[in-house]
Design goal:
Helix content is 70%, strand content 1%. The chain has helices at residues 16-33, 62-74, 83-102, 104-116, 120-138, 148-157, 162-178, 184-193, 202-229, 240-246, 249-252, 261-281, 284-287, 293-302, 307-311, 323-340, 345-358, 360-378, 382-393, 398-415, 419-436, 441-455, 463-472, 476-503; strands spanning 37-38, 53-54. It has a two-stranded antiparallel ribbon with strand order 1-2. The longest helix has 28 residues, at 202-229. It is globular, with a radius of gyration of 24 Å. It starts with 15 loop residues before the first helix and ends with a helix.
């Protein structure tokens, strides 16, 4: 009698969607355990220290768990929806679909790969610095999702893998955010709440930016060198063939053909789109109050008789843009490329819709991630967690206070991944505690920024992270395995740096 051969079932890590749903369920369970509580808020919506009070428990059930991704997309009174980010991602997909229709992007990538041979390290260094500066100056985050479909095939084409591309963009922007210099969404908001100048502590933050950017470049280069020497050392080597096919690396890395005149025009429009996006997002007047050129120019333009109304009297000046405006930009530039590339109307629509469908899963995963925050807010446990931190930090010595404040901000950054939202919820209270501990306000701002930059590099509640990994086809568990030692290094370096600042 033949014995039945039992097949061994290998364990497969669940998808990002499943992991996020499990986290939503875990937070829902915590709403049954953690007492509900709230702070009173002032006219600006900031919590007032010493006003914490318990409220009726509002535990989240099965209904709430499955409603969380829905509310995460459209929003409610307690939580801002992710619809603006999701729509931006979809329109980027459509834009790339139209550009790909002309073949300009593929041929452009071939040229970059060809010209980068022998200079791959320089490419990593330059790109990482650029993204770090973007993160440091204006909080560059979700808008970088547009770069992943471009940089991943380039990195794979020169012999690296998708993790190298993710390291350049993700880690580059996150360490930039960690050491924000003039970022109005973190530096500006947090400094304003505790009534200090955003420029206070700028010198120390620039030094921190140089340190963490150098560490990031060294980390990515070390891994890239290992992959270059032996591709099997790649943590995503098992899916390399699938990734090569998905990102069309072989087609994009063949000997480049000379670009046609039409393709060159399309690439100029393509590059101009990203330049306008960056210029539009940088808050120029927050950096320097006298930099009002774009506001003045827009006001002059919109007041020209007939022409101003023809362009749009409600036009938003560059420097004041956010997701609505940059989504409009990519939509408009898609139409421009249709004409520049001589694409027929029906081909344009098909290409745009096909590009959107390619990024549909990325857009949805951002909403599911926002569902974690929905359950926490609706379960009314945010105030209680903040109150516990307030009690534990009171009366600490300076060095101990700032390090524990850093840890506290890390915990809350997981629950509140929005840097401005976290500042509004905590800085009023933490500012008062810092004064009692004789810690300078600028150091407190640095600890808060460092926490948000650090945690958003690893937390699945961050829309940028889950979206970027989905675009790069990197399982989140593989990414965690790759970066956890580096994140620990950044944590230790930041703790030491903060302690030194309190001693100066």
């Amino acid at each position: 009698m033949e014995k039945k051969v039992q097949k061994k079932h290998r364990f497969h890590m669940p998808s990002a969607f499943t992991i996020l749903f499990l986290l939503i369920a875990l937070i829902a369970i915590l709403t049954w355990i953690i007492p509900a509580g709230e702070y009173k808020v002032n006219s600006a919506g900031n919590m007032i220290s010493g006003t914490y009070h318990t409220v009726a428990s509002h535990p989240q059930g099965i209904w709430d768990i499955f409603m969380a991704p829905v509310i995460g997309m459209i929003g409610d009174k307690a939580t801002t929806g992710a619809i603006d980010i999701a729509l931006f991602i979809l329109v980027i997909g459509g834009f790339l679909g139209v550009v790909n229709k002309t073949g300009a992007l593929d041929d452009g990538i071939r040229s970059i790969v060809e010209n980068s041979k022998g200079h791959e390290k320089r490419l990593i260094i330059v790109l990482t610095i650029i993204f770090a500066i973007g993160g440091s100056t204006y909080g560059m985050g979700e808008e970088t999702l547009a770069f992943f479909p471009l940089i991943v095939p380039i990195m794979m084409g020169v012999g690296y893998d998708s993790l190298v591309a993710a390291g350049i963009i993700l880690l580059g922007t996150r360490v930039g955010d960690l050491a924000s210099t003039v970022n109005p969404f973190s530096t500006g908001v947090a400094s304003g709440i505790i009534k200090i100048s955003p420029g206070s502590g700028l010198g120390s933050r620039i030094i921190l930016l140089i340190i963490v950017t150098a560490l990031t470049i060294a980390f990515v280069l070390r891994y890239a060198d290992k992959i270059k020497k032996d591709p099997t050392k790649s943590l995503v080597y098992s899916q390399r063939k699938e990734d090569m096919k998905f990102f069309e690396v072989d087609q994009r890395t063949t000997k480049p053909q000379p670009l046609t005149k039409v393709q060159k025009h399309v690439l100029w429009v393509f590059a101009l789109t990203f330049i306008i996006m960056i210029v539009g997002l940088v808050p120029w007047t927050s950096i320097n109050k006298s930099w009002t050129f774009f506001e003045s120019f827009t006001k002059w333009l919109t007041q020209i008789p007939f022409f101003g109304d023809f362009l749009g009297a409600d036009m938003t000046a560059l420097g004041s843009w956010y997701f609505n405006e940059i989504t409009m930009l990519f939509l408009f530039m898609s139409v421009v490329i249709m004409f520049v590339g001589h694409i027929k109307e029906n081909e344009f629509i098909n290409s745009f819709m096909s590009g959107m469908s390619d990024l549909l899963n990325v857009a949805i995963i951002v909403a599911v991630a926002r569902g974690i925050q929905v359950v926490m807010n609706n379960g009314k446990i945010t105030g209680t967690i903040l109150h516990w931190g307030e009690l534990s930090l009171a009366g600490m010595p300076k060095a101990a206070f700032i390090i524990l404040a850093f840890v506290f901000f890390i915990i809350l950054s997981f629950l509140i991944p929005s840097s401005s939202g976290l500042a509004a919820a905590t800085m009023g209270i933490m500012g008062s505690l810092a004064q009692f501990a004789h810690v300078d306000g600028s150091v407190l701002v640095t600890s808060y920024q460092a926490a948000t930059g650090l945690i958003t590099a690893i937390t699945p509640t961050a829309g940028m992270l889950v979206g970027a990994l989905a675009l790069s086809r990197i399982p989140i568990t593989i990414y965690w395995k790759w970066v956890y030692k580096f994140i620990l290094l950044l944590f230790l370096v930041t703790c030491v740096y903060l302690a030194i600042l309190t001693a100066l």
